[in-house]
Amino acid sequence: MSNEREFDWFSLERQPQQQPSRDGATLAGDELGRWKEQFSPLLRFLRRKKVVVALSGGGMAMSCHVSVLRVLELLGVPIAAIYGTSAGAVIAGLHAAGLTVAELEQVMLDITSPDELFGFAAKHPAMRLVAGEVVRAFAGRSFDRAGIYDSTRLEEYLINVLQRYVGGVPRLSDLPLPFSCVAFDLGTGRPEPQRREKTTKWVFSDGTSPQVSLADAIGASMAIPGTLPPKKIGSRFYIDGATVEHLPIATAFHDWQSARRLGRPRTVVIAVDLGYGGNAPREESLSHPMDLVLYSNSVQSRAITDYNLLHCHRPRRGFSVILLRPRTISVGICDVDKIPTVMKTAYEETLRQLSGRGFLDLTAEHTRRAKAFLGQGDIASPDDPSEA
Fold first, then answer.
1. pLDDT means per 10 residues in the chain (388 residues)?
2. For burial by CB atoms within 10 Å, which of 9, 199, 248, 311 has the most?
3. DSSP character for 232?
């Protein structure tokens, strides 16, 4: 391969060898079986349980999600449903529509410029801000123009990907894999004085919005405040779901609680968190104004994620969370050149976190840190994962 973005030195599709070789050697048969043995504690834990996947927001780090799906595919873990918020909704939605992991990898590698997603001069937000102010001065202020970037280019990109790989843009009722994504409902933008219009978390799914197109649902979930304008669907506007649920484990938990007529099967949610982990950032990692916006949103989202983890992780009651944090490098909203490295390092980190008996260690560690972060040291501990 002549293009280094095509992984001439590393191919996720040729895994699961841990030390990738340049000749593209792969594992099969007994050799593959021996490789899988390091994950036998995880696979025993998942046996006879319903496995769902929850993918968080994370901007351009969304390629990490693809690497996690690659590992689950190699291990033969069946996914019963997939949830996503913001950038996680992109990967979750495309996978639910029928894109294979290999195709998702190629979609990520095909992104060579942020302009493909956000339009001309994506790396120059100041220029976009000035242009936006000019438009608002003459055309008036509205939700449709309340963002540095126009969402049209991003929506066109999603539509083109869906048309290329699955032949069109499906409705949520047509998806082969159950899919849900989180957004925040702003209302109509023109509430009547006599009637109080509610704003609320909204989950797009086959059950709530069967006729909504997948592209519209994803667009609503990733309408990052200040970066992209609110997404209008019908008469209502929606913004980024990370406003209320960065990592959609509570949404998966609610679905599990609602499944009483099905006997509430024991469920494991593999939750992939690309957000703020509590470490102080490097100055250069927040040099882009939108990176700082995303970082501040991520800090706020962490409190919600921590609370949901403490509330939802209940192994003895039948609902377990396996938390993964595969993002190991800083990735800005315009850092498309980092995508190959991000995918490789996320793949390796996912292998590390899921191997051996420690696959629940991050969940246990994060529940302890969550209580400290929320200032609730006296909160009752979740069920002991070791008893599940």
1. 41 45 51 83 95 93 93 92 96 97 88 69 50 51 59 87 96 97 89 77 96 96 83 91 93 89 84 78 66 72 86 92 92 84 90 93 86 61 44
2. 248
3. E
- Residue 240: closest CA among 170, 154, 166: 154
Q: Angle CA(81)–CA(345)–CA(71) in degrees, nearest 5?
A: 35
DSSP letters of 24-81?
-----HHHHHHHHGGGHHHHHHHTTSEEEEEE---GGGGHHHHHHHHHHHHTTPPPSE
Token couple for 285: 């990692």
Residue-level pLDDT at 180: 98
CA angle at 289 for the pair 287 and 290, rounded to the nearest 5°: 115
Predicted model pTM = 0.83
Residue identified by tokens 């593209």 is: 24
How many angstroms from the chain centroid is the CA of residue 341? 18
Residue 308 near residue 56 (C-beta atoms within 8 A): no
For residues 360 and 381, give the distance between their C-alpha atoms in angstroms, rounded to a whole number: 15
Can you point out the beta strands (E) in 177-296?
179-187, 200-205, 231-233, 236-240, 267-272
Q: Where in 178-313 does DSSP place strands (E)?
A: 179-187, 200-205, 231-233, 236-240, 267-272
C-alpha distances in Å from residue 223, one per residue of 37, 98, 264, 294, 306: 42, 23, 33, 12, 23
- Helix 249-258 × helix 289-312 angle, to 10°: 30
* 3-state SS, residue 270: strand
